[in-house]
Specification:
The structure is a homodimer of 226-residue chains. By secondary structure, chain A is an alpha/beta fold. Chain A has 8 helices and 8 strands. At the A-B interface, strand 1, helix 1, helix 3, strand 4 and helix 4 of A face strand 1, helix 1, helix 3, strand 4 and helix 4 of B.
Chain lengths: 226, 226
């Protein structure tokens, strides 16, 4: 018995209006970040995913693989802790940790402050790891060139249609933890179909940071950007 | 080389002030929801987790197991789609789907509207499945009696310390997908320690909706509440 499937939305116009103001202010700072990055010839990627989908683990493997050929840097976004920045720092790559405290996403102004602390003249590729959240991070332009959405195969096939904006805006979908596929009821074909419903032709790269499967196509995709 | 781990927070006081106004208005509606639920002798649980941690799957198994002994109902929160409500509806339990569109969390006013559509005189236990997100859902009281936080063992041991508020406020942590443990490098002991850092003594219930492991302690925990 399904009683109702109508849309129930927040009732206060005030919230929407203010959100628009915040987003408009964010756009201005994002444009400044983008100009700065372009002037320094830095390609910046905004990584968006659920918590625990494996962003940092893939990033660590990526940084190791690019060591010596591409000059990378990382901005880490988390509500709390410097765990992720600590993991990145072990690779020797410059990293700035942003702790958002109560905010569920990075905003352009936070990235602007982080950029001030990075050696911008010595960076080709900047990874911005957003707060683990498939919703709000997609709404805030940080000044990056492209967004990459990641999801682990343990999360289920329906994520692209339940959280469409991130998949709509991304220029690639990285499927992570594919080494777990034999132990899951994950229907990859349905996941791909769902992703294409939101973003026809979206490049989909299947990876496992543990078995290293898919790392070569992923690195090729990255190198094609710089 | 870790350049900086200082906290960078949003710079606009305006945002914080308005957030406080929104939260204050939410509290009023949440209190009204709580009164209504208490007057109807309904125990309401607010389920919070990342996307894809298995909330709906566990819920479906829970509803099947409680069929005939406890009168349940469900409020489903998602940005988009009625997928989850459709899955719940197959169990025969009353369900209302809330689509939040751009919002990354449920608010009390949405739950208030959903309650109007449920047969409140015939419900003992109400499950409110929040939007898949470990951040903002923890900030919004919906009028529930208790919050339960869920995380899948695929998400990593650090989630309690990276997203502390949900773990702080919850009265139980349900670890899901424990059937996948043999294939992961998940350190359960460290996860438990992290959870206790945030919430000493938090009851932790290990479950697998596939193997049904842990369902009995979970159902006992639920029955103890009503």
């Amino acid at each position: 018995m399904k009683l109702n499937t109508d849309t129930i939305t927040p009732s206060t116009v005030k919230v929407v209006k203010l959100e628009q103001e915040i987003l408009a202010a964010n756009e201005v700072t994002a444009a400044a970040n983008r100009s700065l990055l372009q002037s320094k010839k830095i390609f910046a990627i905004n990584f968006i995913s659920s918590p625990g989908s494996g962003k940092t683990t893939l990033l660590v493997e990526t940084l190791k693989a690019l060591h010596g050929s591409v000059r990378c840097a990382v901005i880490e976004g988390d509500q709390q802790t410097t765990n992720d920045a600590d993991r990145i720092a072990e690779t020797g790559v410059p990293v700035v940790q942003i702790n958002t405290i109560s905010a569920c996403h990075l905003e352009a102004v936070m990235v602007q402050q982080a950029l001030n602390q990075l050696p911008l003249d010595n960076i080709d590729l900047l990874f911005i790891e957003n707060v683990g959240n498939l919703v709000c991070p997609a709404e805030y332009d940080l000044g990056e060139q492209e967004k990459v959405v990641m999801m682990s195969v343990t999360e289920g096939e329906d994520k692209p249609i339940k959280y469409p904006l991130a998949f709509h805006l991304a220029t690639a979908l990285v499927l992570t933890k594919i080494d777990l596929m034999p132990y899951l009821r994950f229907d990859k074909q349905r996941c791909v179909e769902n992703a294409y419903k939101i973003h026809p032709g979206l490049p989909i790269i299947e990876t496992s940071a543990y078995t290293k499967e898919g790392m070569i196509p992923w690195l090729e995709w990255l190198k094609g950007k710089i």
